[in-house]
Design goal:
The complex is a heterodimer of chains A (203) and B (212). Chain A is an alpha/beta fold and 203 residues long. Chain A has seven helices and five strands, in the order H-H-E-H-E-H-E-E-H-E-H-H. Chain A is 41% helix and 9% strand. Chain A has a five-stranded parallel β-sheet with strand order 1-5-4-2-3. Chain A is elongated, with a radius of gyration of 31 Å. Chain B is α/β, with parallel strands linked by helices and 212 residues long. The chains are: A alpha/beta (203), B alpha/beta (212).
């Protein structure tokens, strides 16, 4: 056989062996770091507690809440319909499958927003879209939805509208029965004038 | 008979040129600005271990002594930075973080062994950039807990905050289960100014009053 053919065959074999090393990386698919940085510096990933409350109340089927707190905290209290994926279990098998489903908005929830934001950055690095962070987390949820404070009487009307919504949401989430304003229950007692035996003057 | 069999050297020359082109291509390939230095697992682990935070009370020393080993970077935008910032901090707006010049600066600081402290309006703003830089190999970057807002509130006595836990994130501030427990409806409306209607009764007069 020609010397050149042998030489070329050896070269092909060496290159073929080389490709084995190329695919040796077991890191999952990731977006370029520059792209990740661009995504990070945009604040579009934040949703408010009011938006989340509204979606839950309306039964938005595209909402998937993911609670990133430890399992023990999740068992004690969690938002209705939320799923628990603690930060340390994020990369465990199957958990990443919840994210990046077309048409599903994943909202990360933690005590504050830091752990949720960290989860967001990690999922973003994997190129997952459609993930959000509930700004303020559960602490803010308690302040705004579960125990809203009434705005001052001279606050702008939008504040009062927001408060009215939050009051409604509070009743929804605390399972309280519809309340009737207390004022209606007070019986207004009208005492009639007693007839006087003496003849009154006048007409 | 193939054409290269006429000149056995031709094949060898062609292969050599091919290999040289490949090598030159690899060597001159533009290097990306960043590369991930931490794998996903390492990143998660670093977060769980709570590494590389900078505490507000540590600022006391930085402001007073201006050590060369620590540089503060303010990632808020230029306008807000102008309205007030931590003394000695430099402005590095989030939108300019990816500028090659800024990255060179950060790399130079890293090579000099200088600690970089990032802060934003709150901890959340700087959290993303901080995580990013940790993942691309800037191990000298720390995150200021509480951000600028916490610093501003406690400007007067930063050292006192060593005993404060208000700037710690990730802690429940309420007993969720108790606060969100089902409540009596009347309870919820307690703040709605439903004061009982007060009926003022006419006072009886002993004397026969005139008129209707």
């Amino acid at each position: 056989m020609n010397r050149n053919y042998i030489f070329l065959t050896i070269l092909m074999l060496v290159l073929a062996v080389g490709t084995l090393f190329l695919t040796g990386s077991d890191e999952p698919k990731q977006i370029a770091p520059e792209e990740l940085l661009q995504e990070i510096i945009q604040p579009t990933r934040y949703v408010s507690t009011d938006q989340v409350a509204k979606m839950i109340i309306q039964g938005d089927p595209s909402l998937l809440m993911v609670d990133v707190r430890p399992a023990a905290d999740y068992e004690e209290y969690a938002l209705p319909g939320s799923l628990n994926i603690p930060l340390e279990e994020l990369l465990n098998d199957g958990n990443l499958g919840y994210f990046g489903v077309p048409g599903v908005k994943v909202v990360f929830i933690s005590n504050d927003d830091i752990a949720a934001d960290q989860t967001w950055v990690l999922t973003k690095r994997l190129g997952i879209d459609g993930t959000y962070v509930m700004k303020g987390g559960l602490n803010c949820w308690m302040q705004t939805i579960i125990d809203p404070t009434q705005p001052d009487a001279d606050a702008p009307s939008v504040d009062h509208e927001l408060y009215a919504f939050r009051k409604g949401a509070q009743i929804y989430f605390t399972g309280a029965e519809s309340a009737t304003p207390e004022g209606d229950n007070v019986e207004v007692q009208v005492r009639r004038r007693e007839k006087t035996s003496v003849a009154a003057g006048g007409c | 008979m193939h054409i290269h069999e006429l000149n056995p050297w031709r094949t060898l020359i062609a292969v050599s040129v091919f290999v040289v082109v490949l090598i030159v291509g690899f060597l001159t390939m533009p290097k990306p600005l960043f590369e991930y230095q931490k794998s996903m697992e390492e990143s998660v682990e670093a977060l769980i271990n709570g590494e590389d935070y900078f505490y507000p009370w540590e600022l006391e020393d930085v402001i007073a002594n201006k050590p060369d080993s620590i540089v503060l970077f303010d990632i808020r935008d230029n306008f807000v930075f102008g309205q007030g910032h931590i003394p000695g901090a430099e402005n590095l707006s989030a939108s300019t973080l990816a500028d090659p010049d800024n990255i060179k600066r950060l790399e130079a600081l890293r090579d000099m062994g200088v600690t970089i402290v990032l802060y934003g309006a709150d901890e959340l703003q700087a959290n993303g950039p901080w995580m990013f830089f940790r993942q691309v190999g800037f191990n000298n970057i720390k995150l200021l807990l509480g951000g600028y807002s916490y610093y501003k509130e406690n400007e007067a006595d930063l050292y006192e905050t060593i005993n404060d836990d208000a700037y710690f994130k990730g802690m429940p501030r309420y007993d969720y289960a108790e606060l969100a427990a089902p409540k009596d409806g009347a309870d919820l409306n307690a703040d709605q100014d439903n004061k009982p209607v007060q009926v003022r009764r006419r006072e009886k007069t002993s004397v026969a009053a005139g008129g209707c």
